[in-house]
Give the backbone structure.
Amino acid sequence: MITDRQTETGQGRVNQLGGVFINGRPLPNHIRLKIVEMAAAGVRPCVISRQLRVSHGCVSKILNRYQETGSIRPGVIGGSKPKVTTPDVEKRIDDYKKENPGVFSWEIRDRLVKEGVVDKASAPSVSSISRILRGGKRDDDPRKDHSIDGILGECPTVLIHCLHSPPHTAPIVPHTLPP
DNA sequence: TCCGTGACGGTTGAA
DNA sequence: CCTTCAACCGTCACG
C-alpha cells in the first residue's frame, strides 16, 4: 500500500513540504512560471520553495535552467536520437577498426561503399565515422541547443507584469499549453 | 539556515 | 504491435 494521501488515480504524490507532484513527470507549467516570476521579483529561492511547496532542489534546477537557456520548459523527455548509422553499419565500422586500429575514417567509408554495406549517397559522413571510432559513443548531442525558446512566449517582462497583478486574481498563464 | 549536488525511483517515446 | 533504452523528471538527503 502507498502512504500519504494519494489520489484515487494513483498519480498525485505529496512531498515533504505538502506540495503535490507526479513522480517522473515535470512540474506543471504554471508552477514553473511562478517560480521564475518570484525569482525575477527578487524572492529568495528558499522562500519560493516553501511558498510553492516545491523542493528547493527543484527550484534550484529550474532557476538555473532558466538562467542558462532562457526557457521555463522542461527538457525533451523520451524518444531516441535520430541515428545516422544503422547498428549494422556501426558494427562493421567497429570490426574494421579492430582489424586495423590505425585505419582512417575515409578508408572505412570507402570500404563500406565498396562492400555494399551502405549506398554511396547515404553513406555516413567521415566525421560521423570518426566519432564512432573515437568514442564508440553515439553521435553528438545537439538536443539542447535545438530548444526553441521563443515558442512559449515566456518573456520576462510579461512574467513581471503578471507578478504585479493582485495576488487574489487567477494566475495569468499566457496560453502555454503543452502539446 | 541556505543551496548545490547526485542517487534514486519513476515516466516517456523514437527506433 | 511490442520492446528497448537513454533521455529527462522531482524528491530527498548529504555536506
Q: What stands out?
A: Residues 22-25, 44-46, 49, 56-57, 59-61, 64, 77-83 of chain A lie near DNA strand B (CB under 10 Å from a C1'). Chain A has eight helices and two strands. Residues 6 and 12 of chain A are 6 Å apart (CA to CA). Confidence is low (pLDDT under 50) at residues 1-8, 144-153, 160-179 of chain A.
